[in-house]
Every structure is written in C-alpha cells, then in structure tokens.
Amino acid sequence: MYDAQPAHKFTFGLWTVGNVGRDPFGEPVRKPLSPPEIVHLLAEVGAWGVNFHDNDLIPIDATPSERDSIIKAFRGALAETGLVVPMATTNLFSHPAFKDGAFTSNDPAVRAYALQKTMAAMDLGAEFGATTYVFWGGREGSESDAAKNPLEGLKWFREALNFLCEYSLAQGYNYRFALEAKPNEPRGDIFLPTTGAMLGFIETLDHSAMVGVNPEVAHETMAGLNFAHAVAQALDAGKLFHIDLNDQASGRYDQDFRFAAHNYKQNFFLVKLLEDVGYDGPRHFDAHAYRSEDLQGVKDFARGCIRSYLILAEKARRFNADAEIQGLLAELKTVEPAVAALAGSYSPERVAALKAHEFDRTGLGARGLGYEKLDQLTFELLMGVR
Ligand code: 3MF
Ligand code: MG
Ligand code: MG
Ligand code: MG
C-alpha cells in the first residue's frame, strides 16, 4: 500500500544516503559508499532518481582519466537499476576557496572560479540528462556586515545567474534553475534567506521565466516560518521547480532529519498541499540518517522518508473524503449568495453594492468558526483513531 511508484518521482542526493555522519564535533561514523553503491542502495529502497553535486560524483582533484572511469561506473549503475538523474548542482561551499561565498565572494577571482566550476558542473549534469539545476548559496553571506555590502552581494549573485542562464541557453541545455534559500548555517547570515525572498529576487533576473525555487522543509523551519505557506507562495507564482523534503526542529542546528521525523502535522499539510495541486516534479529527500546509524539504519532512514510521504498522502486523501471535516469546511464558506457576491474582483457595480450594503459587524464577530473541532479531527485522523 505504501509502495513508491515512478510517478511519485522520489529522489535522493548522493550526499544524503552517502552521508558518513561527520558533524562539527565528531568524526565520520560510517564508511563512505561509492556512487554506484549508492545507486544500488537507492534502487533497493524504491527511489526513482538520484541527484548530485559535481564533487559528490567527481572529486574536486580527480584527473581526467579518473573522471572518465567514475562516469563509466556511475552510468553502468544507472543502467543496471533504471534510476534517472533529474537534478544536478554545484558544490560551492566545501573548498576553502569558498570561505567567503562563491558568486558573492568579495574576491573577483573566487567569483570567476565559481562561474567556471558551475559551467563544468552543468555540463556534467546535462551528460546525465538532468533538467533541473539547483543553486544553494551555501556560503553566500557574511558573519559581519563590516565585511560585505549586501547590495553588492545581490548584484554579483544576479550577474552570475544571468551569466549562467545565458550559458545554459547557448549550450542548448534544457535546464530550469531552482534557487534554494536558507537563513543561516554555515554562515552567520545567508543572503536571500527565505523562499519568499528568492521569489522577489527572481523577478529581477534577465531570464526570470527559467528560474524558480527549491524550498527545503528544514530551511524555512530554521527561520521559524510555516513551510507549507512558503511552498504555497511558490506554487501560486508557478515557481515550484523542485522541493527538498526532510525535517527539522525549529530553533535547532541544521538537522536534515528523515522526512516527517519531527513535525507530523506540518508535514501532513505540506504533503496535502502537494498532492491536492498535483505537483508533478521530483519529490527529493535532502536528509540523512541519524549519526547513530550503520548501513542498515541508512536503509531504514531512506525507506522511512518514502513511506512517511506515502502515509501522509493517504491521510490527505482521507482528510478530503472525511464527511465531517469537509462539512465543517463547507459550513465556513456558507453565507447568503447576495452577501457572498459582494467579495470579488473590482467592478463599478461591486463598488456600488459594497457602499450600499450594511454589514452585521457584531454578528460577524460573534460567529464561532469551529477550528478547535477541525484541528482535533485532523489530529485524530493523523493518529489513526479516525
Ligand atoms: C544545505 C542544503 C544543500 C542543498 C544542496 C543543493 C547539501 O542545507 O540543503 O544540501 O540542498 O546543495 O541541492
Ligand atoms: Mg539543507
Ligand atoms: Mg542541511
Ligand atoms: Mg537542500
């Protein structure tokens, strides 16, 4: 019943199940897996696709012949398993050269190197058929505003994206760019810290139609925001090009927990939103297993991400089919047709009707909305007692 279908497009990054459990205070706890091993592991747990940063696949210091043999082995694993590569991205954060950011580094040489590295990574992604290219500004920010002018940072970031859009078009790549916001970590502050900020910025780009967003559960949650609302804004703008599913407790370090490991209710509303609108992009898990886990735990983690999504999708169907819940929702919107017709788009007739209407302000304020009951019914549905 909770089996992944290709239509769900469940994907994982090489860096997710490949995470070795290093953190700022501790050494790795798991052995690294090679890209072909990861592809086979993902096939075993039911994934449809695999995504990568350039250096997840090809080490930054690989020789051309090493590159060729890695690509050959990876291609072989994809052919054996049928996994696809829908998304690619650039690692612009691990190497010390990027300590002050990449496209927004104060150093022009670093900004130029970031362009060169991204073009090469776009070439690599295109070789594997990727159609979404993600930009997460890992270190595009600052610790001290003494060091960087945010206006310059935005200008440089725009220049880089305009350049790379042109490059994608000139190469005939089929890329849509997806910008991923994060409020902080690993920088004190990261520019364009929320999905809403990215959506505003996109409209300032030369090729704004080919640029959308890749919101991540953990990132909006770190900022104390409602993730489903951020996704709704992206959907409303026609800009939900990709999504990073994981989980996070508000106010904590960047946790990247298994999808829905923490906020069951918030993630239920997220899944319901995606399912209700028929989102047909990849459902990408950008998460990793707890540091307590061995290889078996990594598989449990990956299967858990998929299964939790499908369980919440099933709950969303039940919510939509629940007569009592739907009755409460319908009741909320039931008013006299003449009054309902007063709300809507501008017209001289509506202006006249509004000016002439006398509202029962006291009655409006006195009306109970039934949200306590609605929320309790939702909780009971989620807990399986309904
Ligand atoms: C960091 C992230 C990143 C991005 C990735 C692009 C390492 O918090 O979320 O994962 O998602 O760089 O997809
Ligand atoms: Mg993240
Ligand atoms: Mg993270
Ligand atoms: Mg992410």
Automatic annotation (TrEMBL):
InterPro entries with a match to the protein in the record: Xyl_isomerase-like_sf, Xyl_isomerase-like_TIM-brl, XylA_actinobac, Xylose_isomerase
Subcellular location: Cytoplasm
Gene Ontology CC annotation, any one: cytoplasm
Cofactor note: Binds 2 magnesium ions per subunit.
Residues of the active site: 53, 56
Keywords annotated in UniProt: Carbohydrate metabolism, Cytoplasm, Isomerase, Magnesium, Metal-binding, Xylose metabolism
Catalysed reactions listed for this entry: alpha-D-xylose = alpha-D-xylulofuranose
NCBIfam families xrefs: xylA_Arthro
Subunit structure: Homotetramer.
Protein name per its UniProtKB record: Xylose isomerase
The family this protein is said to belong to: Belongs to the xylose isomerase family.
Cofactor(s), by name: Mg(2+)
EC number of the protein: 5.3.1.5
Molecular function, one GO term: xylose isomerase activity
SUPFAM superfamilies tied to this protein: Xylose isomerase-like (SSF51658)
Residue ranges of every copy of the Xylose isomerase-like TIM barrel domain listed in the record: 40-286
Gene: xylA
Organism: Herpetosiphon aurantiacus (strain ATCC 23779 / DSM 785 / 114-95)
Coiled coil: none
Residues binding Mg(2+) 2: 216, 219
UniProt: Mg(2+) 1 binding residues: 180, 216, 244, 286
Major subcellular site: cytoplasm
One Pfam family, short name: AP_endonuc_2
Biological processes annotated in GO: D-xylose metabolic process
Keyword field contains Cytoplasm: yes
